[in-house]
Amino acid sequence: MKIDYKTAGRSALSATLALALAACGGGGGSSAPIAGPPPGATPAPTPPPTNSACSTANQIDFADDVLNDWYLFPDLLDNTVNAANFDTVQSFLDARVAPARAQSRDVGFTFATSIADENALINSGSSAGFGVRLSFDQDNNRLFILEAFENAPGFQAGIDRGTEILSIGTDASNLQAVSDLLADGGPQAVVNALGPSDAGVTRVLRFVQDDGTVIETSVSKSDFSLDPVSDRYGALIIEDGGRNVGYLNLRTFIVSDAADQLRSAFQLFASNNVDELILDFRYNGGGLVSVAETLGDLMGRDQIGNIFSQTVLREERSDNNTTRLFESEMNALQPEGLVLIGTRSTASASELVTNSMLSYVSPNRIALVGDDTSGKPVGQFAFDLDECDLRVRAVTFQTLNADDEGDYFTGLASVMPNTCRAVDDFTSPLGDPSEASIATALDFLAGRSCTPISGGPGQTAQSLNRRQILTPAQPNAAQYQIPGLF
C-alpha cells in the first residue's frame, strides 16, 4: 500500500499545537502541520468506503503504517492491538495510542478526518452551523454562549456572548428545557437536540440575552466563514494609566487568512506605539504552525535570525527536524510586556507561541492569566489517502523554544515564570478592560499584584472554572479545531 507522505517537511499543518505548529512538506496548506485542539473529543469518523480499495480494513492498514513509520512516541504504541477487531479508523487509532494517552502525551491528538472538510476549513474558514461557541454548567444545568461569529445566523438572531439558551426544539410545540436535557442526558443530549451541523437545519431557540430580554425564535444553520480576528474586538488599543496596551483576540490559527489579519492588527499596534501586548487565546485550540510563525515574527522585531521554535521528530526521522528563525515583518514589535489569557481550551499553537516568547521577554514581564492551558507541546503531520478522503493526523513532532524547553504536557502554568488567577467572565464582552481576565492582565502589566494560578511552576494546576466547553462525542473538522463551535 502506498502512503502519501505529503507532510514530510515543515510546511504543512501544524499539529495540535493548539493550532499552530510545524508545517509538513509537500502540497501546500492542506498538508500543513497543525498544533491544535484540547483533549476530550473523538473526531468524527472518516467517510464510508466508496470502493473496495477504501474498505475499512485497508484504511486501518494505512493508519497503522503511518503510526509505525512516523509516530513521535513509538515506545508508547500498543503493538498487541488486533486491527481486525475495529470497524472505524478512529477506534483503531485510539487503541494503538492508548499508552501515550495514559501518560498525557497524546490526549486525543491523533485522529482521522476528511481531507475535503479540513481543507475547506483551512483555505476559507468554511463551516456550517449557528456560528456560536457553547459552554455548559453541569452543576446548575445551564447553557451559555461564550462567543458569536458576526457573520453567522446565531449572532444575527440576537445571540451573543453572555446569552443563556433556555430551551431547544424543532418547532415551538416541542421545546425542551436545557436544564432537563442536561439533567437527564448530560451534554450529549444538548448536542443531539441542536441537530447536525448542516446548512438548512432549523431549531427554535428560547434564550435570554445579557440584559434579561427573553427571545424565542427560529434559527437556521447556514454556511459561514470563520473570521479569525473579530472586527468588533479582535484588535484593540486599551489605554491604561497613560500606556497604550495592544489587545489581540485570535480565535483560531487554523484558517490560513489569519496571517494577514494578524499583520493588520500589528499595523494598528505599531501606529499606536504599543510595547505591551495581551494575547487573548482563551478559546483558541490551535491550528497552523505557519500562522504561529507569522505571529512570532510580528513580536520579534529585534530577534531576526534568532531561533523562534524547533521541531523535533522521533530519532529515526530526525533528518526532518527543523529550526524556525524569526523573519522580518513590517510593523513588527518587540514587546516589553506580554500576557497570555488562557483557559483549558487554550492549546497547541497558542501554547507554542507563548513558549517560544519565553526566551525573549524578561521573566518578570511575561505571564499566563486566567486558567491553566491544555498542555499540548506536540503537533501533527497530515497523511492522506486521497481516494478515500481519509486524512490521518498523527502526533509526529514536539516543539521546543530557543532554550530547548517544551515539556508542558500538564499546561503552561508549569513553565511560566508568572501566573495570575482570573475567571472567564462571560457576562462581559471580549475586549472590555473591565472583564475579569483582561483587567487582571492589565494589573500584571502595570506591576500590580495578583493571585497565582494554583499549581505553579513544575506542578499541575486545578481548573478555576466549573463551566465546560460543549463538545460533541464526534466533532467535525471545524469543531475539533475550534472548541465549542456549533
Describe this structure in words.
The model is unreliable at 1-31, 36-43 and 45-49 (pLDDT under 50). The protein has helices at residues 56-70, 89-96, 98-102, 115-124, 153-156, 178-194, 258-271, 289-298, 349-357, 436-445, 477-481; strands spanning 34-35, 111-114, 126-129, 132-137, 142-148, 164-169, 176-177, 202-208, 214-220, 222-225, 235-240, 243-249, 276-280, 287-288, 307-312, 322-325, 337-342, 366-370, 378-385, 390-400, 419-421, 468-469. The two termini are 37 Å apart. Strands 4, 5, 6, 7, 8, 9 and 22 form a seven-stranded antiparallel beta sheet that branches. A six-stranded mixed beta sheet has the order 11-12-13-17-18-21, sandwiched between helices. Strands 2, 15, 16, 19 and 20 form a five-stranded antiparallel beta sheet that branches. The protein is α+β, with helices and mostly antiparallel strands and 486 residues long. A hairpin with a 4-residue loop joins strand 4 and strand 5. Among the domains are: 127-225, Pdz3 Domain (Roll); 235-376 and 400-461, 2-enoyl-CoA Hydratase, Chain A, domain 1 (Alpha-Beta Complex), CATH 3.90.226.10. The longest helix has 17 residues, at 178-194.
Tell me the CATH architecture of the domain at 235-376 and 400-461: Alpha-Beta Complex
Structural class given helices, strands, pairing?
alpha+beta
Name given to the CATH homologous superfamily of the domain at 235-376 and 400-461: 2-enoyl-CoA Hydratase, Chain A, domain 1
Q: How many extended strands?
A: 22
Rounded to an integer in angstroms, the radius of gyration calculated over CA atoms is 21 Å
